[in-house]
Design goal:
With 240 residues, the chain is an all-alpha fold. The protein contains eight helices and no strands. It has one domain.
C-alpha cells in the first residue's frame, strides 16, 4: 500500500465515528435554544415603502439636516444620497425606534437628568423624532420665516450649531441639544453601517475610509497594521 493511500484509509477510519457523534449531537440539540428569527437582521431594500417617515415634508426636513451634517463633496455623496433616510426609517420601525431597551415608565423626578449625567427619556426615539422635526420647523419659520429645508445653507448651519452648543432651544417639549446628538449619532451610523441596513449605499462610507467590510477572515492581514490593504469592501447582503 502506498503512503498516500494509507493516510487516506486511516483518515476515513478516524473520521467515521466522529461524524456519527457530531450527527447525534446535532439531532439532539435543545430546541428551546434555537435562534429566534426576530433577532436576525432583515435587509432594507431600496424603494420599499416608508413605514415611519411617511410624511414627505418630514423626509425633506431630515434630508436637509443630514446633508448639512454629511454633505456631498469630492470624497463621496451626501448622507441622504447614501441612504440615510432609508436607514433611519428602518431603525425607527424596529426595536430602536420603539425604545425596546428603555425603561419608559414614569414618574420622572425633577433634576434626574443632571443626576444621571445625561438625559433620560421616557419618550421613544420614534416619538422624539416626531416632536423634534415639528419643533425644528416651527423654530425655523418663527426665527427665519421659512421651513428649515428652505433656508440657505449658512442659516441651516447656524441653527444646527446653536442646537449643538445649547444656545438654541427649539421648544419646551424638546431637549434640543439631546435631539441634535440623536440626529448626529444616527446619520453617522447610516453612513458607516453595513449596507444591508439601508444606508452606506454602494459601501461609499467604507470605501472612503478604506474599511474592507464584513470579511470572514483577516488572518492574512494581521501583520499589516496601519497599512492600506486596498481590499474591495464586502457587505453582509447575500449575493445571488
Amino acid at each position: 500500500m502506498k503512503r498516500r493511500q494509507a493516510l487516506l484509509t486511516i483518515g476515513a477510519v478516524v473520521a467515521a465515528p466522529v461524524a456519527k457523534v457530531v450527527a447525534d449531537e446535532l439531532n439532539a440539540y435543545p430546541h428551546d435554544m434555537a435562534l429566534d428569527p426576530a433577532f436576525l437582521p432583515s435587509p432594507v431594500h431600496s424603494g420599499q415603502a416608508w413605514r415611519v417617515l411617511t410624511d414627505p415634508a418630514d423626509r425633506t426636513t431630515l434630508a436637509a439636516v443630514f446633508d448639512r451634517l454629511i454633505p456631498s463633496d469630492d470624497l463621496g455623496p451626501s448622507a441622504s444620497q447614501a441612504g440615510a433616510l432609508e436607514f433611519l426609517d428602518a431603525q425607527l420601525w424596529g426595536p430602536f425606534g420603539k425604545g425596546a431597551t428603555q425603561y419608559k415608565t414614569g414618574p420622572k423626578a425633577p433634576g434626574e437628568d443632571a443626576l444621571m449625567q445625561k438625559p433620560q427619556f421616557i419618550a421613544t426615539p420614534r416619538e422624539r423624532y416626531a416632536t423634534g422635526i415639528q419643533a425644528l420647523n416651527t423654530y425655523a419659520k418663527r426665527a427665519h420665516g421659512a421651513l428649515f429645508a428652505a433656508l440657505p445653507d449658512a442659516t441651516q448651519d447656524q441653527i444646527l450649531a446653536g442646537m449643538e452648543d445649547g444656545t438654541i432651544q427649539l421648544s419646551r417639549e424638546v431637549n434640543t441639544k439631546a435631539f441634535f446628538e440623536l440626529l448626529l449619532m444616527n446619520v453617522r451610523e447610516s453612513y458607516f453601517a453595513d449596507p444591508m441596513y439601508g444606508g452606506n449605499r454602494d459601501m461609499v462610507g467604507w470605501k472612503m475610509i478604506g474599511f474592507p467590510g464584513a470579511r470572514y477572515d483577516y488572518r492574512l492581514y494581521a501583520d499589516r497594521t496601519g497599512q492600506a490593504l486596498n481590499l474591495t469592501p464586502v457587505s453582509l447582503i447575500p449575493k445571488d
